[in-house]
Design goal:
Length: about 300
Amino acid sequence: MSDERILVVGGTGLVGNALVRGWTRRGKTVTAATYHCRQTAAFRQLDMQDADAVKKLIGEVAPTLVALPAANPFVDYCELHPEETRKVNVDGSINVIKAASARGARVIFFSSDYVFDGGKGDYHEDDRVNPLNEYGRQKAEVEAAIAKAGPRHLVIRTSGAYGWQWEPKNFVLQIRSKLSKGEAMTIAEGIRYNPTYTENLADIVCALADSGQGGIFHVVGGERIARIEFARAAAKAFGLDDRLIKGVPADQFKAPALRPKESSLNTAKIRAAVNVPIWGVKESLRHMVSFEPAWKEYAEKTPAEKI
Ligand SMILES: NC(=O)c1ccc[n+]([C@@H]2O[C@H](COP(=O)([O-])OP(=O)(O)OC[C@H]3O[C@@H](n4cnc5c(N)ncnc54)[C@H](OP(=O)(O)O)[C@@H]3O)[C@@H](O)[C@H]2O)c1
């Protein structure tokens, strides 16, 4: 839709900022909201836990489409603080879904491979969800709420997102940071998933939004790979010493939240839905390495120039 007005709730995040840039490149009218950081004329401040503030912002922006990548996505933190994170991840998301629906706007909610238990892998969109941890349960709950809100809305299940971001929190930037200082990195063996490069994810989601389709879609990188193999590939792509990556059996890796062992997602539905290639590991990492100067140029712009 050419007259689309888009609100991205969580526009400073890893996924949200790639979406903001993706839609801006396509000439769309985009408003981005942030919670903590970079409150400016360009990025509106919003705590989605505050239902009145959500209604007010949606009333002012009058979006036709609301992208909702905002969340507390820290899986162990969710496990240790279920009540606190539920207020953001469930109640906050539902505030946005309700306010957007009341104004006739479509919603794109970002969910996760962690709605599955990892018993089989290659999950299809209509496979039964059975989360192993609190984060996954919170995502599954919002998926159920959005299904009730109507078939026009979209749920994007993604997995292991990586790319350039202000705070280098994602797996690839952590590997790069540690290995470039000569520090070793320990990684659980036997975990398989589809790592997802956010620039490719954003292109696919923008195309899907344009197509007007609703429902659940798995939008992940085109390759199912062991986490440790992906880490080695990332190290090599950045010219770093992959021997610093050490494997540990997954059951010796102590973390508060259980994680699925095989959470790979099937991409047949999204491949049929949009005409955007889904990149594999090599192509994605090659793009990420070559994209660094463009990212730096964007990151150094004043906040008001970013949209
Ligand atoms: N990263 C992954 O590997 C991955 C995998 C599967 C699914 N997902 C899902 O994909 C989505 C995006 O993840 P991400 O990695 O991009 O997360 P992220 O980088 O941590 O970004 C989270 C965003 O949410 C905003 N936010 C947090 N609390 C908020 C609140 N109370 N009200 C309004 N905004 C709030 C943050 O704003 P500030 O920056 O201003 O604090 C930030 O813009 C999440 O739903 C996540 O669960 C991520």
